Amino acid sequence: MKNRVFFLFLLFIGTTMYGQEMEVMSYNIKYANENDGENSWSKRKDFITNQIKFYEPEIFGVQEALVSQLKHFQSEMRNYEYVGVGRDDGKEAGEFSAIFYDSDEFKVLVENTFWLSETPDEISVGWDAAMERICTYAKLKDKSSRQTFWVFNTHFDHIGEKAREKSAKLIWEKISTINKKNLPVILMGDLNLEPDTNAIEFLSEKMNDSKVVSELEFGPEGTFNGFNFNEPVNTRIDYIFTSDDFEVQKYGVLSDSKDLKYPSDHLPVMVELKFQ
After folding, report:
1. SS3 of 44, please?
2. Segments in the chain below pLDDT 50
3. Contact yes or no for 248/209 (Cβ under 8 A)
4. What is the pTM assigned to this prediction?
5. Which pLDDT score, from 0 to 100, does residue 19 have?
6. What is the DSSP code string of 170-191?
7. How far apart are alpha carbons 63 and 60 in whole angstroms?
8. Where are the alpha helices (DSSP H) in the chain?
9. Cα dihedral 255, 257, 263, 269 in deg (nearest 10)
10. Predicted pLDDT at 7
11. Side-chain-facing half-sphere of 18: CA atoms under 13 Å
12. Side-chain-side CA neighbours of residue 220 (13 Å)
């Protein structure tokens, strides 16, 4: 009888850890700028907040977010906490590449941010980039299954071609160094690169592009809409990459709108992942 109970316990633990599913979103929400007319943050924030609430990702990474936007999300979605710092001063100034997580489900074990430059541990501009760029990462632990994994969120430079290529390699070097126990890894962000570029091909050799490997794909091909509601969305520059530890069950680009307007100049990317 004791052996049977022990066997059932092991079966339960194994099923909980390796059959676990979660939804992850990457979203460039565009920084809060009240000079954007109809696309100003004050006119977008309610829709974009309710959009995230509706889809309920367990984890979502945001790009271009200012601290005021992060605090707005926290006030409206109290089950979420975030990790990250502003790129200008390593505290609250400038844009964040923050990682939000459902604090009822996950605990943060490690968190940090590095700059995409030759001196990643210092506030700095890298290579031919136009401004500071960062990558924020966290080691999360599922409170129920005790599964631990890494999440990286970043935003590559929009000007520097060399900076984008070097940033991809730097992030992979960091992942390889940090992830000494070969835990599952998720890398997401606005990479300002289309799929046929060297940096994306490099990352696709190291990790799985969720769009490519997903069992089910939904939504437009592209992710950058530029607030042009009446034009096709064909430019794909936002990504979620995963290690082989995940099965990508669903991949979607969410083209929700209201009154013929998008809530951001990017569409969010969302995936349903299953630990293998």
Report:
1. helix
2. 5-17
3. no
4. 0.93
5. 72
6. HHHHHHHHH-TT---EEEEEE-
7. 10
8. 2-18, 41-55, 67-76, 161-178, 198-206, 210-213
9. -20
10. 43
11. 9
12. 20
The residues near 138 (Cβ < 8 Å, ≥ 6 apart) are 83, 99, 101, 108, 109, 110, 111, 112, 150, 151
Cα separation, 256 vs 47, whole angstroms: 10
| Residue 18, pLDDT score | 55
Give the Cα-Cα-Cα angle 62, 56, 34 (nearest 5 degrees). 40
Query: How open is the CA angle 140-175-102, to the nearest 5 degrees?
Result: 20
CATH of domain 21-275: 3.60.10.10
pLDDT tens-digit series, residues 190-222: 999 999 999 999 999 999 999 999 999 999 999
Selection from 167, 69, 178, 187 nearest residue 124 by Cα: 167
Which residue type does 84 have? G
Q: Are 256 and 218 in contact (CB under 8 A)?
A: no
CA distances from residue 81 to 74, 105, 132 in whole angstroms, order as listed? 7, 11, 24
Residue 23 in tokens = 């939804």
Lookup: tokens for 203: 């990352």
Q: What is the pLDDT of residue 3?
A: 53
CA atoms within 13 A on the CB side of 141: 6
Angle among Cα 123, 129, 135 to the nearest 5 degrees reads 50
